[in-house]
Design goal:
about 190 residues; mainly beta; 5-stranded antiparallel β-sheet; 1 helix
């Protein structure tokens, strides 16, 4: 009697195990491998007017690959001196299949903003999208979004930011899980 009771209790688990895929599917992702930025720095020893920019290097899925290959490109947005840096519209990267923007709803300041990436995958406009907040937070090294290190070095220099973590100690990358979407976000 007891021998039959054990297999009967395992049947629901067996059906669940059979329903799971045999091979896990890889989630597509974008990886920001480097970031460089310059912003105005107010104050008596700062530089209040500067040609500002945010430039990132990105590894992204190759849309023609069936084996998970990736491609690399750079994305950059510039603001001329006298212009306050802020949110941007979609901008083509070096490889125009990839676009990026700094969305208005994710812009807090030059040391706390979102980066949004979009890769067109099909002729009907469907693609992959991802968003990540990048923050400079030297006072809180446990902040999971504190990827940037920003510093104003010496008199009359701009604020510069790199992708070296909260205290500028080690190079970092930012891995962004991508989601499939039917069209590019507005």
């Amino acid at each position: 009697m007891h021998g039959l009771a054990i297999p009967t209790t395992l049947l629901p688990l067996l059906s669940l195990a059979l329903a799971l895929p045999l091979e896990p599917r890889d989630t597509p992702e974008f990886t920001i491998t480097s970031l460089g930025a310059a912003f105005p720095y107010p104050g008596p020893y700062g530089l209040p007017s500067v040609n500002s920019y945010v430039s990132i290097a990105v590894t992204y899925p190759d849309p023609s690959s069936t084996s998970g290959a990736t491609l690399n490109t750079t994305c950059r947005v510039d603001w001329p001196a006298g212009t306050t840096p802020g949110p941007t519209a979609w901008t083509p990267c070096g490889d125009s299949v990839l676009q990026y923007r700094l969305p208005a709803d994710g812009w807090t300041s030059s040391t706390n903003f979102q980066v949004e990436l979009w890769e067109t995958m099909t002729s009907n406009g469907a693609g992959l999208g991802a968003t990540q907040t990048l923050t400079s937070d030297p006072g809180n090294p446990s902040n999971p979004n504190a990827y940037m290190f920003c510093l104003q070095m010496g008199k009359f220099n701009p604020l510069t930011c790199t992708l070296t973590g909260p205290m500028g100690q080690s190079p970092r990358t930012v891995v962004m899980a991508a989601t499939e979407k039917t069209s590019q976000p507005n």
